[in-house]
Write a structure and sequence with these properties.
- By secondary structure, this protein is of the alpha/beta class.
- It has two domains: about 220 residues, 3-Layer(aba) Sandwich (Rossmann fold), CATH 3.40.50.2000; about 160 residues, Rossmann fold.
- It has 14 helices and 14 strands.
- The protein has an eight-stranded mixed sheet, sandwiched between helices. A six-stranded parallel sheet has the order 11-10-9-12-13-14, sandwiched between helices.
- A hairpin with a 3-residue loop joins strand 3 and strand 4.
- Helix 5 runs antiparallel to helix 6, helix 8 packs across helix 12 and helix 11 crosses helix 13.
- The protein is globular and about 65 Å long.
- The two termini are about 35 Å apart.
């Protein structure tokens, strides 16, 4: 430790992968910097986007060596991309290496932030105390993506890649980390694998700024439904939203859909084949500045996912007073209380369509759900609650309090860049 404020290394996935992990990491980095910490982001270099730092088979035979690149990310945070050998195996992204050891040793405090715990593998190998903040176990995080693979790739993934990843997960859980997750549903699924290693998962929910995300002055038009996320991820199940809208419109309801986030061409084709292309607006990836306006223009936010650790979009919409209809996909059920703050449904388009129609047709119902969800998000997902919980974890790991800082502890990170909520 130096006379300066402690340096904190956040080990995570590449910031170029838009989604909840990037939002989670950026928010934590912003919070810690506001408290006076010197924050650095470190991540594995992905073959597809930073291939020059990795050594795939073709370069390995030629004597290639992994590289390291330093650059700035988000609001001027120092960031380090670290390469590996044989990235085709994927598990090697998370492997221990001299490059990782040098970066880890140069920092005082260490936190891993990921969709699963694998990003913490270099920290587990270091033997240093660290915090792991993740959303899912490896299998839960991977199953839907695995099912969407080609037959040959799926076979390779099931027989080679996934077993290696699960073995590494057990090694991380058996290390010296302290573990936290983002929702009650995530904690329940992770506890099942954590028990074998004697580890439990505290809940450290991702907070939302209720000032930035606040209700509109004028109510939105009835029947405007939104979905938000990285819809190329099969877990998001965006086609179910199209099917629900098509079902509602066949019943005569004036339901339209706004889609925020990157989509595949297949989803546009599906909208056309279901006869709802004229009722669907594809907005693309929104900037941070555009997100509050997007939510305020919605009558309902729909979460049609197969699996969610939390779903940040649901919290942001709820803070804007937008009721949420969600499938039984995990995390959103922490804040979507059926009939009180929104509705929880199965995966049949008819059931979802019925709930969308109920809210659209009954303004008193919509107003009650809106008021209740806004109150719940403000009470349960504010920055003060986050700071208190993180402070408890911090003291238990490093036997010291969080720095008080001189700025408000607002974790939601506004500013330049793009944000595709999970």
């Amino acid at each position: 430790m130096t006379g300066l404020a402690p340096s904190v290394l956040l080990v995570t996935a590449p910031p170029t992968i838009l989604g909840g992990v990037a939002v989670q990491t950026r928010g934590l980095a912003t919070f810690l910097r506001a408290r006076g910490y010197r924050v650095t982001i470190a991540h594995y270099a992905a073959l597809r986007t930073e291939g020059e730092l990795t050594v795939p088979v073709r370069r390995l035979l030629a004597g290639g060596r992994p590289g390291l690149r330093r650059y700035k990310v988000w609001d001027g945070f120092d960031s380090i991309a670290i390469g590996c050998r044989l990235p085709e195996l994927e598990v090697t992204y998370y492997g221990d290496s001299p490059l990782w050891r040098d970066v880890i040793a140069a920092h005082d405090r260490h936190i891993a932030v990921g969709g699963n715990a694998l990003v913490a593998a270099p920290l587990a190998a270091s033997g240093l105390a660290h915090l792991v903040w993740c959303a899912s176990d490896v299998q839960g995080d991977r199953i839907d993506r695995q099912n969407a693979m080609s037959s040959a790739r799926r076979l390779f993934d099931r027989t080679v890649v996934s077993p290696l990843l699960r073995r590494l997960e057990r090694r991380v859980l058996g290390g010296c980390g302290t573990f936290a997750t983002i929702s009650g549903a995530s904690a329940r699924s992770l506890d099942a694998i954590g028990r074998s290693a004697g580890k439990a998962f505290d809940v450290l929910p991702i907070p939302v700024d209720p000032i930035r995300f606040s209700p509109p002055g004028t109510p939105p038009d009835p029947g405007v439904v939104g979905i938000a996320g990285r819809h190329t991820d099969p877990r998001k199940n965006a086609v179910l939203a199209l099917q629900a809208v098509a079902t509602a419109r066949r019943r005569g309801a004036k339901i339209s859909l706004r889609v925020a986030g990157h989509v595949s061409d297949d989803l546009r084709v599906q909208a056309d084949s279901l006869g709802v292309a004229d009722a669907v607006e594809f907005l693309g990836t929104l900037t941070n500045e555009d997100l509050p306006g997007f939510y305020r223009g919605l009558d309902v936010l729909l979460i049609p996912s197969r699996q969610e650790g939390l779903n940040i979009a649901g919290l942001e919409a709820g803070a804007c007073g937008v009721p949420v209809v969600t499938t039984r996909c995990g995390g959103p059920e922490d804040y979507v209380i059926d009939g009180e703050t929104g509705f929880v449904t199965g995966f049949h388009p008819s059931e979802i369509a019925g709930r969308l129609c109920d809210i659209s047709a009954t303004r008193a119902l919509r107003e009650r759900l809106s008021r209740n969800l806004r109150a719940r998000v403000t009470a349960e997902y504010g920055d003060v609650r986050f700071a208190d919980k993180l402070g408890q974890l911090w003291r238990s790991i490093w036997n010291e309090p969080l720095l008080a800082g001189s700025q408000p502890a607002i974790v939601d990170a506004a500013g330049p860049g793009v944000h595709t909520p999970r």
